[in-house]
Amino acid sequence: MRMRRIGVCLAVAACAALGTPAVTGVGAPQAHAADSKVLRVAVTTAVASLNPFLAYHQADTEIGRMMYEFLTAYDQTDQHPVPGLAESWQVGTDKLTWTFKIRQGMKWSDDKPITAKDVAFTYNLMLTNAVARTANGNFVSNFDTVTAPDDTTLVVRTKQPQATMLALDVPIVPEHVWASKVDKLVNYTNLDFPVVGSGPFTLVDYKPDQYVKLKANPNFWRGKATVDEVDFYHYDNTDAAAQALIKGDVDLVSKLTAAQFDTLKGKDGITTNKAVGRRFNDLIINPGAQTNTRQPIGDGNPALRDVKLRQAIAQAIDAKTLVDKSYGGYAEPGSSYIPPVFSKWSTNQQRTFDLAAANRTLDEAGYRKGPDGKRLDKEGKPLTLRLIGDSGQPTDNPNGQYLKSWLGQLGIPVDVQLVSGDKLGDVTTAGNYDLSFSTWGVNPDPDAVLTLQTCAALPDAEGKSGTTETFTCDEQYDQLYKAQLSELDEGKRVQEVKQAQQRLAELATSVTFAYPDQLEAYRSDRFSSFAVQPNPGGVITGQNGYWGYYKAVPAAAGTSSGVTPTGLVIGIVVAVVVVAGVVLLVVSRRRKSTADERE
Amino acid sequence: MTNALSPEVVEPTRGAGRGTLRYVATKVGGALVSLVLVVVLGFFLFRVLPGDPVKTITRDAPVDPARLAELRAQLGLDDPLPVQFLRYLGGLLRGDLGQSYNYRQPVLDLILDRVGPTLLLVGTATVIAAALGLWLGVRGGWRRGSRFDRASTGIALLLWSAPTFWLGMVLLTVTGTLFPSQGIIDPATPPGLLPQALDLLHHLALPCLTLVAVIYAQYLLVMRSSLLEEMNADYLTTARAKGLRDDLVRRRHAVPNALLPTVTLIFLNLGMVVSGAVTVETVFSWPGLGQLTFKAINSRDLPLLQGTFIVLAGAVLVMNLVADLLYRVIDPRVRAA
Amino acid sequence: MTSTTPAAITWRRRRAAAATVWRQFLRDRGGVIGLAVLVLIIGLALLAPVLTDAAGLDPTQATGGRLQPPSGTYLLGTDELGRSVLLQLWWGARISLLVGVLATLVSVGIGTLFGVATAHFGGWVAAVLTRATDFFLVLPSLVLAIALSTVLDRGIFAIVLAIGVTSWPTTARLVRAQTLSVESRPYIERAWALGAGHLHVIGRHVLPAVLPLVFANTTLTVASSIIAESTLSFLGLGDPSAASWGTMLNSAMLSGAVTFGAWWYLLPPGLAIAVIVLAFMVCGRALESVLNPRLRER
């Protein structure tokens, strides 16, 4: 009995010993949190590499954008090119020589001056070193020479006139840090904290798949950010991230689903942001896949080479219904190739859903109906199509079912198949599909998505290294594409880009049906507002820039950060339970052994 | 995939008259053969996965065909398969698991970073589950058919039957704001051993509880049934005849002997639990080996996949070997056989 | 009736043995309840096309709102596409059961083959087969299954193969042990002495003696296959157009049902898995203890 009493005393003492310092420790982080303003962001996509030359993934490049300033930036309001490291620029009469004026007096985060030499170093490294070209090589592939005659002047000579010279998404790195890394670039992780940079934030800590920590850079040329620190927390799924927002573990969450968004809408202390998306979802129709040597590949249904059939399919897609049903209303019905958020470039051409017209198109084109009401192809064989989608995309299943029902009403049976994203990539790359769902994000400069439809994007003779989205290869389109790329007069370029999109719509190899909204939410009890891009109606995260994080406005005093203390208290409780359990176990054993001895 | 609920998993070694040395040599040799097979399979299995690694890496970025070709050459994907295989073997012999396509870090470093969290999670869960399972198993087995026995066996089986990830999701929902839903430690936690340790415990609680709930049934059932087997043994009757008290008979005689199969089961299961941690780690965003493997599969990170595959299979191999050897050491009956 | 051909005698003996097994099984209350639950669920699953309208699974014909809580029209509420959760649960049983059973057939088939062959042939054949079994036993089965199901074409058969190919070694070990003990019995020696061939010994003597235990093991394997299926589907490897319970949970998570607090979407599939797995388990354990005298006391 005495042993037991001693055990209880021990347990109480242990609780007290564990509890006291922990409780006193609670005050410290809270006080700390009050005077340093930390923005905690949930990321659900993996951060892989923070070496700006190797970083491909969206999360990587977004953080890279915060660490390094580019030559030019995109405006927060309408995303037109604005000064970055370069304060002004001009192009020579030869249309090939670009002279950028680099702003004077800018400093890296280690107080060394930022000069045109750093910019020239970065571009020349990419021109000479294949590893440095890994992520952003396509921006410099048309560069002939890059020189820095003095600290404030950068001269770039291109091989061909290039309209995208103000859309060079290349992080500029400090020469004094990177000159010694050139030889082992492929193995360089760029994690020597604090990482010297020029952007609004400096990388100070990173644990893969756990968190990324950035501190405001006081040397940033626009001035120090409004928050002191931005922490990215990794979550394996958006539901956990949404939960964390409710709990107050993070302040900002993106990529929400409709259900999560609706839930968060009604919560106290949380504000939601429904933003226009810059991604299109489209149906791609195999027009006869081929390599760049014009060798046919894949097993696409040959009937789809007929543009009339493709157009009839396009007419049979009701974007409005898809948006309302599959996307729960959180998307814009798709029409043009370039989303309307880029109003300058988008044709905003509407496509009408008309099953009767589609049926007429098919009748006129000679697709007769068999006795069972099913269409026959021109050789008199029954026409059936396979539609392949991504099982990881929640909208692909319902979208597929709708398409199946609409095309069924045209007399074309459709077999819907959902496969993993990678498998889908394999199947479409090899041209082994009839119809497939696809999606692509669009940049402020439309060139990148326009190249996807050129003949040059077709795969090589071995069927590899293709970047084509749809296997479109059309002379007229290619001419329009080339014209816009070398057109330095913006007004004319806009016309050419729109004509290229119209041509694409006629070809009907890609039928855009939705631009999903970006759904975000933040703790408005900790942050009163964020800068969205474009403004209004735009996104906080995943911008073409750093505005969202840079201009985050912390809420006035009285921030509710009752989170850490609860956490610690729970930790204490868990610790106490464990300790008490161990103590009790030991005690009970001791007691029993004494009892045994007594017998 | 753990189908280890029947006590048959531990097979007594057959064949009489083999020396201990020969026994050990056979077991170690067998494990080595398996290891070689794992290394070979690790390479070829993942080469047939669909998805071009180069395309997966550049998924988010607009790149031109020339860049894709350059990247392919950089990663050595253009070389013929045998050349790639030899390079992989050569690297392995030098202890180099290659460079992750995605993280752009040595695979070995990435794996070493993740071993700790996984061991912490799986180790803690196994210790608690084994302790709980043994204790309940002994209590239930000793009074077979009692209400306690039926209830504890029933609850254990029910928990074992629930999918791990679902149990995790439900726990996460039910506990509301009490526990964090991500990671292993909060970077905002003040430095110092105590706050850090408490924060760690706070993060560990739910994933650990989930894992314990699912795995403790195995220990309970094995302990219970091997105790039942021992209870009919003659020596217990002798012990009782000597006038020893009931719970003394249980603790001094029955339990130590019944422990044998359970101890080996712990080692047999440990390796399995490591790879089974994939789902728990995914639900709780726990930065362990399972999560790393799953990410590697999703991003077609071939070197990383090979590395995690070898490590996971190697762990099971070693644990099986330990179980085999241990069984021989601690059970005199097997030694004599 | 009173036929005395050897075959008839064997048959009668086996029928009698089966009757004994059945009687003993009936004495195990847990096993009987498990069996009743199984019969009920399997019956409902088989009758789904008769009792319900599959059209409700088609998102284009869904009539409900997004994630509606349970009501008179939708007893278990609706999912993110406005379909009845109850209806999906009902049809999901078909997929989950089908995958579980087929995967088990693959697994037990391979396992029995390997187990019998290892024990029966001995020598280098046994050495190689044992090595192979041990090798598959150490492979991280979930990782292997994930890899396999990405290689194979999507659909339930990919999952079936992935589970079947990775879960057979335990059966193989069990069968091997049982075969060894059967083959050491005198009547097998007698058969050998009478000039029986391998086929005869295996087909007429070994298999009939081993199969009952294999059958008990099968029910346990179905249980773990159903869990394995749900895990693979949850990790996003299932086929959303043929939704199993695991796929439902995957959709629930993807669509944010947890945050929404849609318990009617989250709980039923998980509970259904737990219940059916438990039912298979108690049945299997009851059978095992009847068939394996060593276990009878448990």
UniProtKB/TrEMBL annotation, chain A:
Localization annotation: Cell envelope
First and last residue of the signal peptide: 1-33
Cell membrane found in the keyword field: no
Matches recorded under Pfam families: SBP_bac_5
Keywords: Membrane, Signal, Transmembrane, Transmembrane helix, Transport
Residue ranges annotated for the Solute-binding protein family domain, each copy included: 81-452
TM helices/strands, residue ranges: 568-588
Entry superkingdom: Bacteria
InterPro entries given in the database record: Peptide/Ni-bd, SBP_5, SBP_5_dom
The UniProt record lists the keyword Transmembrane helix: yes
Family named by the database record: Belongs to the bacterial solute-binding protein 5 family.
Name of the molecule in the record: Peptide/nickel transport system substrate-binding protein
Lineage: Bacteria, Bacillati, Actinomycetota, Actinomycetes, Pseudonocardiales
TrEMBL record, chain B:
Start and end residues of each ABC transmembrane type-1 domain: 115-327
Cellular-component GO terms for this entry: plasma membrane
UniProt GO BP: transmembrane transport
Cell membrane recorded as keyword: yes
Gene3D superfamilies: MetI-like (1.10.3720.10)
Keywords for this protein: Cell membrane, Membrane, Transmembrane, Transmembrane helix, Transport
One matching Pfam family: BPD_transp_1
Subcellular location field: Cell membrane
UniProt KW Lyase keyword: no
Membrane topology designation: Multi-pass membrane protein
Ranges that cross the membrane: 28-49, 115-136, 157-180, 200-222, 258-284, 304-327
CDD domains: TM_PBP2 (cd06261)
Signal peptide (UniProt feature, chain positions): none
Top-rank lineage group of the source organism: Bacteria
Family in the record: Belongs to the binding-protein-dependent transport system permease family.
Protein's name in the database: ABC transmembrane type-1 domain-containing protein
TrEMBL record, chain C:
Top-rank taxon: Bacteria
Keywords assigned: Cell membrane, Membrane, Transmembrane, Transmembrane helix, Transport
Name used for this protein in its record: Peptide/nickel transport system permease protein
Membrane topology: Multi-pass membrane protein
InterPro entries, sorted: BP-dependent_transpt_permease, MetI-like, MetI-like_sf, OppC_N
Organism expressing this protein natively: Kutzneria viridogrisea
Stretches assigned to the ABC transmembrane type-1 domain: 93-284
Sequence intervals crossing the membrane: 32-51, 95-116, 128-149, 155-175, 213-235, 271-291
Residues spanning the signal sequence: none
Annotated family: Belongs to the binding-protein-dependent transport system permease family.
Subcellular location field: Cell membrane
